[in-house]
Amino acid sequence: MTARLTRWTGLAALVTTALTVWLGLWVTPPAKVQGTLVRLLYIHPPVAWVALYCAFGLAALSSVLYLWRRTRSLFWDRLGAAAVEVGVVFTALTLVTGSLWGRPTWGVWWTWTARLTSTALLLVLFLGYMALRRVPASPEVRARRCAVAAIVAFVDVPIVSFSVDWWQTLHQRGTVLNPGLTLKVHGSMAWTMGLGFLAMTLVFVWMVLVRYRLEVLADRVGDEELEVSLSERWAETGGVPSPPAAVQAPELWGGRR
Amino acid sequence: MTAAAAPAAAVDPQRRRQRRLRLAGAFVLLAAAIAYLLVEGLGSSLDYFDTVGQAVAQRSSIGSSTIRLEGVVVRGSITRTATGADFEVAGQGRTVVVHNTGSPPQLFQTDIPVVVVGHFAGRTNVFVSDQIMVKHSATYIAAHPTRVKGPGGTVVR
């Protein structure tokens, strides 16, 4: 069921991405002012949309659902971890595509304007989340820590979002998410951008599905490795678990489900 | 884990709830204080530039310190020089003359908002800059809505 869903999502992501590339590079016209540089419009905003709202939104939501006692399950922890990891990739891509767009249009690869600074901070915050996941702990303790970290880091998302409205920045204001929600893109460029949003969202869903499965498999491998090493120890000592092994890995003992 | 939970369970639930409430109150107060300091302290310092109107109004306090100045390039004011370009930027009914050295970015043109980095020269309202950044808008319109250029400059439609 999940395998089939993953396959179809992947296929849909591939098709819509290919269509966006074709429309974006060959079919749509060059724009007034920006000329052919406008083609970054079909990739940069969709990538940023996935990073900010899809990935970190999902991460924050699953973190809340993990912390809430009635819905607490390691499913939400794994889903949040998968979403964050994909989100970090998309945030990095947002910074890279933005930088590539900034050099020819603004004239600089990078500058410390509010939108850019808060986005760079977002990348570092969620890299911190990923580092926190590698700190040894029982799955429950790790899940609780990471859920809190994800919610704290998510505070930066609205700051990134509203930075262009709150302060004077070099970055232009929202093309879609502006006060009044008026789309400022015309004709075929508008629906190519829309397709770009759909394509990147599908890529995101596919990546989260694959990453979630990896997380489950990694947990299973961890459990099996533990069992193998335990049985090896028992064999060595003739059926009695040796005290040093138990002392060295208390968190693994505590973390067995 | 269990060692830490044991004494807490020994305290009666009423007092534990009270302690937790007080802790939450302190946390909220701390968060509010930090937020207040951030807004007060950072406030306008998070603004990337001064507009022409703001800069002219605060001309005496700015002195000759380096700032970023934002304005729209006045039509017909651009003169390319050997080292860069001279032009005027306007905003909020004020105009500032800019002497820029260095090559402007490719989108630099008349009627477009720009941010120039530099300082006012002496006591004048002349701005000496060594960097121009183009602040384009979020509006995207086709250059030629009725035709599309194919490879090699041939008109397809």
Task: Characterise the protein shown here.
- The complex is a heterodimer of chains A (257) and B (157).
- Chain A is mainly alpha-helical and 257 residues long.
- Chain A has one domain: Up-down Bundle (Four Helix Bundle (Hemerythrin (Met), subunit A)), CATH 1.20.120.
- Chain A is 74% helix and 0% strand.
- Chain A is elongated, with a radius of gyration of 22 Å.
- The two termini of chain A are 26 Å apart.
- The C terminus of chain A is likely disordered.
- Chain B is an alpha+beta fold and 157 residues long.
- Chain B has 2 domains: 42 residues; 87 residues, Nucleic acid-binding proteins (OB fold (Dihydrolipoamide Acetyltransferase, E2P), Beta Barrel).
- Chain B has a 5-stranded mixed beta barrel with strand order 2-4-5-7-6.
- At the A-B interface, helix 7 of A face strand 7 of B.
According to DSSP, the number of beta strands of chain B is 7
Taking the sheet with the most strands of chain A, its summary is: none
Helix-strand topology string of chain B = HHEHHEEEEEE
Q: Report the largest inter-chain contact.
A: A-B, 38 and 34 residues
Helical run tally of chain A: 9
Gap from first CA to last CA of chain B? 73 Å
Question: Which structural class is indicated by helix and strand composition of chain B?
Answer: alpha+beta
Secondary-structure arrangement, i.e. CATH architecture of chain A: Up-down Bundle
**Rg calculated over all Cα atoms of chain B:** 28 Å
Task: Give Rg of chain A in angstroms.
Answer: 22 Å
CATH superfamily caption of the largest domain in chain B = Nucleic acid-binding proteins
How many strands in all of chain A?
Answer: 0
CATH C-level of the largest domain in chain B: Mainly Beta
Helix content of chain A: over 70%
* Spatial arrangement of strands, main beta sheet of chain B: 2-4-5-7-6
Overall number of domains of chain B = 2
Mean pLDDT of chain B: 81
